[in-house]
Each structure stands twice: as structure tokens, then as C-alpha cells.
């Protein structure tokens, strides 16, 4: 079956702009979570959605937000981009008792 | 709060030699533990996971890990390394339940394989 699909793969944005990243989970998976990966901070949890509800949130500013649709697809949005937001953003889907499957990520570069 | 420590930032191993990557965790309840591998520019691939039961877990690509509750460790091993095993490896502990799912990762260990 198809894996976790993240689009786009690469993005270049300017400081102050906003960006929306998309994640399509594995069919049947209702939990979608997002992670930020940077060389300095490593892998950090952003938030998790389950059945269109945010169940858990990491320690990130309010500029980072997300949502999940009825088909379990999820989007995350970052407003007022800063240089430090440059990172690989990873999405993972889960069937709850089965572990987490990650997508290939979206590489965001803020200039 | 949960945390994961991978003491070794880099490990260099000769092809054909054995490999052991260390992972120590801190978690208040019974942990759910994972090992992931990441090739450059790619996402994370699950190698193996421990939820309960047998403390020696077999994974893909010939990897295994042993859960030791008394030592709060979940070390990853491979008897004979192949050049394709060069990558970065992450240990993670998972929180589950009504509060939602969340993984906390260690800092990663980069494995270099010498021919």
C-alpha cells in the first residue's frame, strides 16, 4: 500500500512569508503527527492530530499550526517565517498500536 | 518528562564487523521504544519496535535490539555490517494514550562504514 506522502519536497520562502505543508497518511491511519528536524535541535515533536482533533502539541510558538481533514490528510502552517524555521519537516502516520510510518519530508529553506 | 540519550554521536565500523548503538531512555511508565534509520535527505525508516513481551526484538535488515528495564536501555545491534548500513540512527520513546501519541527522539548516531 502507498506510504506517507508529503508535498512539496522542497520549498524556498522569504522571511515574513507563510507556508503550508501537506501530508497524506497511509490509508486507514487516523493519527498524523508532525516533527521538525534541524541540525541544532534534532527531531522535535510539533503536534499530533487524530480524527480531526489536535491531541498533543509540542513546545513551539503559535506561528506553527496545523489541521486534519475528514480524510485524515493533514496540513501544517507556519506564519511569519523566520530564518530559524529552516528545517526538514516530517510527517508520520499511525494506526495507534502499530508504530509510526514517516514520509520523506519537506525541506523548507527560509531566506 | 520522557527523554532519550544516544551517547555516541559518530561510530565508524569496518564492513563485516559487528555494530552496537547505545540508547538510554527516561520514561515514567512502560515505554514504547523504537529504532529508526535515516539516509541523507530522506525520511525515517522504522527498523524495529518494542511494545511488550520478549525483550529481544528482531527488525529489518538484520538488526535486533534488547530492552533492559533495569538499565533503561534499548541498544541496537547488527552482527555484520554492510556498506549500505551507513546512515544516521535514531532511538525514540513513545508516549501513548488518551493524551495522544508523541515520539521523543535521541540526538542520533551517525554510522560510517569503512571498506
Strand composition percent of chain B? over 45%
The low-confidence runs of chain B, each spanning 5 or more residues with pLDDT under 50, are none
Largest protein interface? A-B, 27 and 24 residues
- The radius of gyration computed from the alpha-carbon positions of chain A, rounded to a whole number of angstroms, is 13 Å
Number of helices of chain A: 0
Major sheet description of chain A: 7 strands, mixed
What is the overall silhouette of chain A? globular
**Strands of chain B, count:** 12
Instruction: Please tell me the overall pLDDT of chain B.
Output: 92
By helix and strand content of chain B, what is the structural category? Answer: mainly beta
Q: How would you describe the shape of chain B?
A: globular
Q: Roughly how many Å is the radius of gyration of chain B?
A: 14 Å
Helix content of chain B: under 10%
The largest pleated sheet of chain B is described as: 6 strands, mixed
Structure report:
Chain A has 111 residues and is mostly beta strands. Chain A has strands spanning 5-7, 10-13, 19-24, 31-38, 42-50, 53-57, 64-68, 74-78, 87-94, 100-102, 106-110. In chain A, the strands form two sheets. In chain A, strands 2, 4, 5, 6, 9, 10 and 11 form a seven-stranded mixed beta sheet that branches. A four-stranded antiparallel beta sheet of chain A has the order 1-3-8-7, with no helix packed on it. Chain A is globular. Chain B has 115 residues and is mainly β. In chain B, 0% of the residues lie in helices and 53% in strands. Chain B has strands spanning 3-5, 10-14, 19-21, 24-26, 32-38, 44-50, 56-58, 64-68, 73-78, 87-95, 102-105, 109-114. In chain B, the strands form three sheets. In chain B, strands 2, 5, 6, 10, 11 and 12 form a six-stranded mixed beta sheet that branches. In chain B, strands 3-9-8-7 form a four-stranded antiparallel beta sheet, with no helix packed on it. The mean pLDDT of chain B is 92. The chains are: A mainly beta (111), B mainly beta (115).
